Structure formats: structure tokens, C-alpha cells
Amino acid sequence: PGAWAARRIDAWAHTARHPLFWVGAREMGGVSIGLTAWAFMTGVAMVKSGMSLTEAVLMSLLVFAGSAQLAAIPLIAAGAPLWVVLATAFCVNLRFVVSSLHLRDYFMFMPRRQRLTLGFFTGDVTYVLFTRRFARPAETERQRRAQLAYLWGGNSCNWVFWQSLSMLGIFLGAALPA
């Protein structure tokens, strides 16, 4: 486990040192103002719907999809069956299937587990920014590394902004009266 973690940290550090990582983060940061309002509102909505702090925090961390969270919250609050909640979240997130199919040619060189991880962290806006900057998949290893660094830069910025403001919404929403 220690060697695996060391390799993951080293790989992450290698990606974060690439100049396009910071270009992706900066470009995502420019549009994150709107996302932070969405994240804050989602955090508040979770706790005000009756979810515990633990449930809301776990949902924010494990369901990295604001639209699916907002669609699921009233269903959970109403006591809908789990299959209805999951089917709703699945339908709301079908757009990610389309973007994943489009990104397939860009990242098929990666092992499946890495592609799944990348897919989990790639959101609507990071996808749009990425495909606007890179109209075609890379042809060389150097180009692949640059594309991956850019996408991880945007994804990292998106994740930090979303989680920070979602957590603020969760804890502030729990502390303030209705």
C-alpha cells in the first residue's frame, strides 16, 4: 500500500508541475464563481431537506454531480425508494455518457481505473473547456501528457471550489435557522 501511494503521489506531482495544469486551473477558476453559488445552494439544500451533516458531507464527496444531488434531495426527503433516487440521478447524468464517448479517443491509452477516476472528476464545464482547447486527441506522448495535465488542472480547481462551497453551505445551512 505504501509503494502504491508513493507512486500515485509522484504521478500527481509530475502532472501538477506541467504548465498546462495551471492553465487549466486558471481557466476553470475564471468560471468557478457561478459554480460556487451552485455548490453553496446545494449544500444548504441538503441539510435543509433533513439530511444529517454526515449524509450531506458524504453525498457531496461521493456524488460529484450537483444536478443529480438536487434531483435526488427531494426524493430522499420524501422517502422515495432507493431505486427511484438512483434512476433519477442516472437519467440526470446521462449527458456524461455522451461526453465520455467523445473523450474516449483522447484517453484510451490510460488503464481503465485511471479513466474511471478521470471521468469521476470531469464535470460539464471542465469538459467544455478541454474540448474547446483540444479539438483532437493527442498524437504523441508529450501531447497526451499536456492534455491530461490541462484537464487535471481544471478538474482540480473545479473539485476544490465545489467541495469548499458545498461544505460551507452544509455547515452554515445546519447552523442557521430555517
Helix content range of the residues, please? over 70%
Tell me the β content: under 5%
Could you say which overall geometry the principal axes of the C-alpha atoms support? Answer: globular
Give the low-pLDDT segments. Answer: none
Provide the gyration radius in Å.
Answer: 18 Å
How many helices? The count is: 9
Order of helices and strands: HHHHHHHHH
Structural class: mainly alpha
Largest sheet data: none
How does this structure look, described?
By secondary structure, the protein is an all-alpha fold. 82% of the residues lie in helices and 0% in strands. It is built from nine helices and no strands. It has helices at 2-16, 19-48, 53-62, 66-77, 82-92, 95-107, 112-121, 124-133, 141-175. α2 (19-48) runs parallel beside α9. The longest helix is centred in the last third of the chain and has 35 residues, at 141-175. It is globular.
